[in-house]
Amino acid sequence: MKRYADKICKGLLFFPALWSWPLPGGCDAIDQQLERNMHVFAHGPSKPGNSGQTLAYERGVGVQAQMVVFDRMGHAYSPQRVALGPLPPPQAAAEPPLTEYPRHPKPPKPSWELDYSFTSGYREDRLNWNIAAPNYYPWFGHPNVLSELKWENIQSAQIAGKAEITSPGGWHFQGKVNYGFITAGKQQDSDYQGDNRTLEYSRSNNSADGGHMLDASIGTGYRFAMRDKEGNVQLGATPLVGYSYNEQYLTGTNLLQTVSVPSIFWCDNSQSTTPCNGPALRPYPGLDERYTVQWHGPWLGFRLTAQPLDWMELFTQYEYHWVNYYGKGTWNLRPEYAQPYSFKHYADGGGMTVSAGLRFKLTPAWAFDLDANYSEMTTNSGTDNTYWSAGYVTSQKFNRAVWESYGANAGIRYRF
Q1: Whole-model pTM?
Q2: Do 257 and 394 fall within a single domain?
Q3: Main-chain dihedrals φ then ψ at residue 307, nearest 5 degrees
């Protein structure tokens, strides 16, 4: 309104009747007067207070209108047509200041996770160990490998059970048991007169299609997890510590002598220096050799999980083991050895186990699992105690043992 009052103040020469107004304060006074005595109409003038159609127009749109000025008595003077510019846009009401930060929906709190899985599959193992010559053959030269046993292509059908429990706070517990029924395999027993497996004087190749495999392990750790907005674990990493027990119960049957060279080891008199003839090259019935080995000790490792899709999960686990090795054998066709245990082995060593798999979620509770695993353990040198039927015990160097295993399983998982 003040903008229009300034125009009127400067154009008073066109309104002589207004010269008699007292003008204390100059144009500012006119501004105040016109604020009270100036009106804009859409159609013709009317007195203030009289009914008349006043101009109505949208904000932001300029229109043509008439401006009429009244004196103190209410008399209107000649109307002036003016162009009204657009009104300033309305200002939004000031928002009240925030008294607290806006709240965002929080993901659901983690709950207990209890998973149980049952799988079955195939595994294959191999084991070999060897010993050095004893000290009671000083005339023999002490070959660093006197006798070596190998079990190869030991095939098993196995079943496995596993339980995993994770607390809402992130603590993870796991336990698993595998049991394998040996269905096929081969055994080889070789003896040497020279160092580094030279001058082989005896070899037998036998069947090893009996026995079993047993693996058990427990572990615990804290899971670090990245979750989505629904609270599902998208990435998980769990450092682990645990303890494991692995057992192989191996056999040797259907003996077939394939190498036989004259040697003093074939002589009944251990003081003999003249080689004696060994057994003929042919099958020998009645062989029932047994060898049981145990690997047990603590391990450290980690477990990684990832869920790239809602219905699929990937997982892998690595463990490094420190093991104690204990083996005991029965050689039933050697009358000079004691029965039921002809010798025992003691050593320590280490190795690793790695596994990886896929999990396909069928429902929120049920899933289908596929996994593969590989293990390798090796001992340091240790002790071989040989038990003789005459009642005495001799000791010699146990060089080392090596065990390798790999397998694959498929089965179901249920989450409570």
Answers
A1: 0.72
A2: yes
A3: -125, 85
